[in-house]
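Quick log. Single chain, no ligands specified.
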Amino acid sequence: MSHFAFATWNVNNRRFRESHLVLLRQLRPDVLVLQEVSEHFFHGLRAAALFDGGYYSMDYLPGKSELPRSRRLGCAIFASERIEIANPSLVPGLPLPERSLVVEAKIDLFEMRVCSLHTPPGVSWGELKPRSHLVLANWLKRRSTSVILGIDANAPKVDHPEYGRNEWWWPDEAKLLGEERIHDLRDAFREYIGGHADLLGSIRAQRPCGPLAVSYIRGNRRKRTESRYDFIFVSPEFKVSRVEYLYHEAVEAGSDHALVFAELETSEE
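-> predicted structure:
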């Protein structure tokens, strides 16, 4: 078995600064996947030498120089020296492919794929959002190896403690994120709290209708709604040891999304 730390973070198109690095140095994830990453942020983090290797989705998108400004943010994946990453690619068939990145990864003898994805918000991209969910769900359904996914899903509408009572903006979101999803990856946080009755009870007492954790606050000054839009999904080959949503720490560092941190364990070879 191999233990490693994994983190996913939407960095909100911010310029890379020392506060991002301070938080990442505290956590020291072995694998970090990022969303809404600018070229400045990617190169700044890579130059900081906190990680051994890294890839940026915009580097693998044909015709990127001709894209409108709204499509000039991508995803990134970094890994420590413990984990080899190689062969970067984009999820095929996505309407906005630059919002994804997939790498082949290896720790000891265990092989896996790591994926970062940011689905477009429905308020500005309309049906491209549920279409992205469906494409990704089908891609995961066809998986041929172990997979870890870090995603800003811009869903669900209601993240209820009772999985079956989630509410969605679009029906196809449930095929990726819901209780009856069409692939076999599991929501790592639900997996974790399912084995910790005291934590689940505390969450139910604080937020009886959800969300299970706060990763983003949507809305405006008149109405702001706590939401869980950021997820780690893992295939059954992984054991989830711990998951933590670091919302306040991530906001102080410069984002508007939580950094989601997990400790995972691979299965026996």
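The mean pLDDT is 95.
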